[in-house]
Amino acid sequence: MATSLHVLVALGGLAAGLLGFTGWVGGFWTLDVPWLVPLSGLSLRMDPLGGFFLLLVGATTVPSSIYAIGYARGARRGLGAYALFVLAMAVVPLAANVPTFLLAWELMALASYALVLTDDRDPAAVRAAWIYAVMTHAGLACLLSGMLLMTAWTGSLTFADWPAAATTLSEPARNLVFVLLALGFASKAGVIPLHVWLPAAHPAAPSHVSALMSGVMIKLGVMGILRVGLEWLGVGPPWWGVALLFAGTLSALGGVLYAAVENDLKRLLAFSSIDNIGIILIAVGAGLVFHSTGLETLAIFALAAALYHILNHAAFKALLFLGAGAVVHGAGTRDLEAMGGLIKRMPWTSAAFLVGALAIAALPPLNGFVSEWLTFQALLQNGRIPRPELNLVFVLALAGLALTGGLAVACFVRAFGIAFLALPRTEAAAGAQEAGPTMRAAMALLVVACATLALTPTLLLPRLGATAARLLGDAAPSSREDLLTIAVSGDFATLSMPVIAVALGLGLVLPLVVLRVGRAPSRIRHSETWGCGRLLQTSRMEYTATAFASPFRRVFDFFYRPERRVEIEAHAESRFFVRRMVYRNPTRALVEEWLYAPLLGAVRAGTDRVRAIQSGSANLYLIYVLAALLVLLVLA
Question: 247: which residues sit within 8 A by CB, 6+ positions away?
């Protein structure tokens, strides 16, 4: 039954992807079923942006569901929630009125909550689900408030009526709605400081669900921000874009800094998702600023870069989560310190994870490099804005993006090197088994997707530009000069990914050809890797994940504020002889400590005060009701 359902969901994902593609390239349609949803009925509308995100949902669902066939091993728990989760995600991009959107959004949240709670005997999963439920419903409260305000002020529950009516609203009213809706969508996207659910929920969920949550669900939050900032409220003031630029830079830097020192492989990937959402928001923020200052061509280019990175991140992050799931499946651990040497035991998974790591680190010739390069090119053209204060914001975003890129490379060198290279650190790693055929097939599909996205920017960028232009109500300029080269803003910059790929391939092959032609000795010498002259190499001599992260902790001490903990156990015979020593250097979660802990303390103090009126006396409760009625009468 489990296999059949996953096959059905994969087929549904394929159909959704094809439907989304037709909408993305221009197939418009609407569907109204008045009796199905209260208030104004079910209403769906296909447009290029909705088609793009529906394509994203379908294209990520197919490999995730194929992977689940081998990963779930016939387990039935969570099957209904999984199907509902995919269905709700497919409806969200097409929702055309408030009731349809909120219903699909809430179903998506409840289904993903159930999936995070798949192992309800694990206290960490229960805590993760609780945090996720609180944060997602705080976001829903913001969305509900903003949408109700817009409905009241425009007199319509239909999104298509909002852009024209929004021009009649006062500036403070539009700003208030923007803030409310942006906060609601940002909480789903995992933007700092609303990210706290993400590193808890992703490790708790099954890996194919994590792939969908990180690859698609959080992107629907970005879709909401695009709708609010560019469509529903019309052209906004520059500070909307500036706020997104700051939030994106903070998220990119904060996410990658936490990922660089995290030892739990799935938490590392979750923090990396926050980092990549930050990169996407930087491009979106740049697009909003360009749009508000009248630079439409640059706005389209920046938004196309954001959409490109959304596609890329869905492909390589899903690949990495599926690879991490295969590691957990094969080695039985998420702890990097307990891995090592997996490349010899899980070669397929290692190769797939390596492709994902190279892509997310934005190294050529893979797809992450293309979209980050485009984002840099968009930011670098900020000099055309004649306002120094805005130029300064762009410079800060550029610096943050550059630092993020460097740290991401170090982060994934650490993740791959510690997990897959050298010698196994535990017996579980030594006995790790390769993933099954369906899991390998799913990862292979995503590897192909990463390669395709990397080599076809000249085909994708015009379509992404057309999608962005449609959002702005403008015509899309073509950035394609030929099938090999992207040209940015005339002669500002050019990029040819096929040429880079061929050059790198030749760089790898040419030395072998030269050695062959030069008749170099072909005798193969076998020796210990990194032996350093030692006769016996053991896993205790290897570089650990903690040691690798130590320089980051020292350099960014002001951010991590690590706590040094040393536990020493002495021999029973004498306290001067150490039997066991444990060293820990955990980082602190400052957002939780400085923002959420005081907030929870205040809520707890408030509930304690309210509890004082909870006497259990029916007479007293009747007096409360009477007092409330009197207050309402006076107010009325």
Answer: 186, 191, 192, 278, 281, 285
Pairing of β 42-46 and β 486-488: unpaired
Question: Ramachandran region of residue 527, left (φ > 0), alpha (ψ -120 to 50) or beta?
Answer: beta
Cα angle at 115 between 53 and 447, to 5 degrees? 50
In our burial notation (b when 16+ CB lie closer than 10 A, e otherwise), range 422-456 reads bbbbbeebbebebbbebbbbbbbbbbebbbebbbe
**Side chain identity at residue 178, one-letter code:** F
Give the length of the chain: 636
Secondary structure percentages of the chain, helix, strand, coil, to 5: 70, 5, 25
Residue 614's CB: how many other CB atoms inside 10 A?
9
Q: Tokens at residue 428, please?
A: 């579980």
Task: Report the C-alpha gap between 419 and 341 in whole angstroms.
Answer: 7
| DSSP label of 436 | -
The rounded distance, in Å, linking the Cα atoms of 236 and 230 is 8
- Are β-strands 493-495 and 486-488 bridged in parallel, bridged antiparallel, or unpaired? antiparallel
pTM over 0.70: yes
What pLDDT, in 10s, does the model give residues 227-284? Answer: 999 999 988 899 999 999 999 999 999 999 999 999 999 999 999 999 999 999 999 9
Burial class (CB in 10 A: 0-12, 13-18, 19+), 148: middle
In whole angstroms, give the CA distance from residue 150 to residue 228: 11
Question: Closest by alpha carbon to 335, among 263, 427, 256, 438?
Answer: 263
Per-residue tokens: 175: 């700003």
Q: What is the pLDDT of residues 475-531, one digit of tens each?
A: 766 655 577 888 887 778 888 888 999 999 999 889 888 888 887 777 777 776 666
- Give the Cα separation of 448 and 545 in Å (integer): 30
Are 301 and 489 a contacting pair, CB within 8 Å? yes
3-state secondary structure of 46: strand
In the block, which residue shows the tokens 């040419």? 510
- Residues 411, 413, 418, 423: what is their CA dihedral angle, to the nearest 10 degrees? 180
Which amino acid belongs to residue 584?
Answer: R
